[in-house]
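Teaching note: in complex prediction, the entire set of molecules is handled at once rather than each chain in isolation. The prompt given to students was simply: 'Predict the structure of this complex.' The entities are:
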Amino acid sequence: EMQLVESGGGLVKPGGSLRLSCAASGFTFSSRAMNWVRQAPGKGLEWVSSISSRGSSIYYADSVKGRFNISRDNAKNLLFLQMNSLRAEDTAVYYCARGPYGDYIYWFDPWGQGTRVTVSS
Amino acid sequence: SYELTQPPSVSVSSGQTANITCSGDNLGDKYACWYQQRPGQSPVLVIYQDTRRPSGIPERFSGSNSGNTATLTISGTQAMDEADYYCQAWDSSSHIVFGGGTKLTVL
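The expected output is the structure of the full assembly:
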C-alpha cells in the first residue's frame, strides 16, 4: 500500500525555521516527482513546491521562492521542505503528494495526512 | 499568472446529479483534475487527465474539459459525497494551479 507520512510541523516564531519531512513507502520513490501542497486554516489548497525524481528540476510558488527549499533522499525514501524566514501567512497544514509518473506533476496521488505548521509569536 | 475559478458552493438533492465547474483561459488545452476533500481529511484524487477515474473511485464520478471550462459531474449523489472539491491544472508558467474550491452540500 502506498503511504506518505509527514512530520516536523509545530509552532515557530515569525522569522524562524522549520524542516518538514515526508516518509514514502509502497512505491518506487526514486522514480516519481514529489510535491508539497499547503492549506491555510479554512482556506483552499495552495501548491508550494515540486522536485523531479532525481532532484535535478525544482519549482517553487512565488509566495515561498527564496525562503523554502525542497530536497529529497532517494536512498532513504524521504522528501524534505526546509522553511526559512517564516511568516504568519505560512501557517497551514502541509501535505506531501506524489506525482503521477516519471517527472510529470500534472496531478497528485496519493497525499499524506499532513503536518501542521503554526507561525506565531 | 494562471487562475482557475470555481463556484464557492453547489447544492444538490440526494440521488440527483451535481455539476461543479472550473473555469480558466483555454483550460481545455490543459489536463484538468479534481480532488475531493472531506472535513478533517486529506485530499483524494477523483478525476485526472480530464476524464479518467483512479481505481477505487465510484463510477458516478465523471469529468469533462473543453474550451474554458472543466466540469466534475457526480451522478446519483449520495450523502457521503458531501465535501469540498478542488480542480487543478498544470500551466507552463504557474506550474500547479488550484481552483478556490467548491463546497458540495447534499440535501
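Point out the following to students. The radius of gyration of chain A is 13 Å. Residues 43 and 92 of chain A are 9 Å apart (CA to CA).
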